[in-house]
Amino acid sequence: MQTLKTGILKALRTVYDPDLKKDLVSLGMIDDLLITNATISFTIILTTPACPLQEFMKQACIQAIRKEIKKELEIIITTIAKVTSSRPPAAILPEVKNIIAIASGKGGVGKSTVATYVALSLANHGARVGLLDADIFGPSIPTIWNCEREKPAVFKQNGKNFIIPLERHNVKLLSIGFVANSQEAIVWRGPMASAALKQLIQDAYWGVLDYLLIDLPPGTSDIHLTLVQTVTVTGAVVVTTPQKIALIDAIKAIAMFKKEQIQVPILGLVENMSYYFSNKEKIGTPHYIFGKEGGKKLAEQQTIPFLGQIPLLPIICEQGDVGISSNKTIAPFDTIAQILAQQIAVRNAIYQPTEIVKKSY
Ligand SMILES: Nc1ncnc2c1ncn2[C@@H]1O[C@H](COP(=O)(O)OP(=O)(O)O)[C@@H](O)[C@H]1O
Ligand SMILES: [Mg+2]
């Protein structure tokens, strides 16, 4: 059997992960290779359960083995995912593999919406997901997730109180709206808001998470600085609408993350409210009311990955108002979630870990 095994491994060495640009054997992605008289079986260890290349890689493995091995054996491939991390051992949130900031320059462009549906998609793929609402002055996660009147439980460990995030549709949720009177929170001064965010980060018991999404307020505020000074952020996603006024602000947000003292990699840009379909006309004709592909072009100019476009859809607005009632995601968000998960894996493989931003900054 040894020669057969050697042949199979040789074949698998010709299969490359298109993102990481190395072969599956060198990347340690092949496990449990077993050969019987009738079958060849093995597991591909993916870097994310939301990997959009799963089927492609399986087929590439089958083709490579068929080319190398003449014996007609059934090939059984299983996939599992071990989400990678590039977060250095940290005192705060050590069990969270990836922290993803969802940002924009302008308000109302769809950060909370994108954070919500991407979280749902990742969880639907089997990832362990948390969503932290860092919009201290205007938390919208409690409304979108239909848990405005809920209070998270608290437990005590070693004399310290921990907040247990709420859980909806397999996503763990935490918002200032759950723990403070929102009318009070909006009149807080900057330092109080920063302290509140810090407390939400430090005092929450998330458990092991593959992805913690942070829904940020608009702009480039104290809250953003507090975040990068408190935890190592894996990367940021910038959300924009296609019109000039939003793009100008998106550029500012990108510049903030790229700043020498901050250096949080940009994982990609999402263009929201890209177009709409008029009911009166033939379905399928998009109307680019805010201009065409402004976000896509910005991603190209800034050489950052473009994660995708989301049309204006009545269902998004309705669910934003009354709250989501199931784990159903919406098609463009699922594609965006998969491309984002892919970009996180690429980031973890290629770039240095992000460092905590020094307090003096
Ligand atoms: N693609 C879309 N189609 C329809 N409504 C949308 C879309 N994206 C966002 N909205 C709505 O626009 C409003 C602002 O979105 P939100 O996600 O709260 O923005 P932000 O968090 O950036 O302030 C919400 O009412 C939301 O439901
Ligand atoms: Mg928001």
UniProtKB/TrEMBL annotation:
Keywords tagged on the record: ATP-binding, Hydrolase, Iron, Iron-sulfur, Metal-binding, Nucleotide-binding
Entry-linked SUPFAM superfamilies: Fe-S cluster assembly (FSCA) domain-like, P-loop containing nucleoside triphosphate hydrolases
Binding site for ATP: G105, K106, G107, G108, V109, G110, K111, S112
Keyword ATP-binding tagged: yes
InterPro entries: FSCA_dom_sf, MIP18-like, Mrp-like_CS, Mrp/NBP35_ATP-bd, NUBPL-like, P-loop_NTPase, YlxH/NBP35
GO molecular-function term, one example from the UniProt record: ATP hydrolysis activity
GO BP annotations listed: iron-sulfur cluster assembly
Alphabetized PROSITE patterns for the sequence: MRP (PS01215)
Ranges of residues in domain MIP18 family-like: 7-69
Function: Binds and transfers iron-sulfur (Fe-S) clusters to target apoproteins. Can hydrolyze ATP.
Assembly: Homodimer.
Family that this chain belongs to: Belongs to the Mrp/NBP35 ATP-binding proteins family. In the C-terminal section; belongs to the Mrp/NBP35 ATP-binding proteins family.
Protein name from the UniProt record: Iron-sulfur cluster carrier protein
